[in-house]
Write a structure and sequence with these properties.
The protein has 10 helices and 10 strands. By secondary structure, the chain is an alpha+beta fold. It folds into 2 domains: about 160 residues, Ribosomal Protein S5, domain 2, CATH 3.30.230; about 110 residues, GHMP kinase, C-terminal domain (Alpha-Beta Plaits, 2-Layer Sandwich). Strand 8 and strand 9 form a beta hairpin. It is globular. The structure holds cytidine-5'-monophosphate.
Amino acid sequence: MLIEPAPAKLNLALHVRRRRDDGYHELETLFAFVRDGDVVRLDPDGQGFAVEGPFGAVLAGEGDNLVTRARDAFGAAFGVATPGQITLDKRLPVASGLGGGSADAAATLRLLARRAGVAIEDQRMFAVADALGSDVPACLYGRTAVGTGRGEQLEWIDGAPGVPVLLVNPGVAVSTGPVFAAWDRVDRGPIPAEGDLIMRAKAGRNDLYPPALTVAPEIAEAVAWLECQPGADLCRMSGSGATCFATFADGASGAAAAERLHHEHPDWWCLETVLS
Ligand code: C5P
């Protein structure tokens, strides 16, 4: 049995700069990853694809998903047959701004590459990842980075490993396409280059926040709730939403906020974790 973690991705800042002729948007984003997320397993004795976990039922009904697409794309690119059964343990909410589907696809590619003896750095891995989705290359390497282009052009930067993070989702699924489409096409400028990761993120924005609110107004409630928590530092929506995050000065204040959330919003999803 091979096991590969598929950690959640955060956009600590996300600046949308320009709508392109191909319908995608030119962006500038600070990608960071947290310790926890989904898990992908490969059992050489089985066959096919299975999904389990707290959010498994959401995906189970869908014929097409990024794990089987990644498996098939890897097979086509490297000329290897599908080996055994792939199981996705779906712990992250679906369509939530955490790159869950992209992380799952990337973990599947890493798993199959390990088994086939292909290096992650192999340029064909990037090409396969890039074709699967804008966030898949970032998730393939799982390193803190500035992403430009569609998000696939990556420049590694120093991370802030160990910083406590609380992820909160008010229970709404948001599709990325309509949120980008609702962007007002005003370029508000780049992410400031000065300072460390968190300083740069704080000096930046998430330009998808206003358009996401038009689709899911309850996201504002989640951000407002995080901003009220003692010790909360950077509070923001990730990706196109609806998951929001706060970094915390220390683990105890993050844990206390998680505890309060369970009482005040028992129906919201939350994950207490750290940046990796
Ligand atoms: O690349 P991916 O398939 O993950 O993107 C999903 C949708 O998000 C795209 O169809 C597009 O509408 C939007 N998108 C965008 N600009 C980006 C990334 C995604 O407009 N840079």
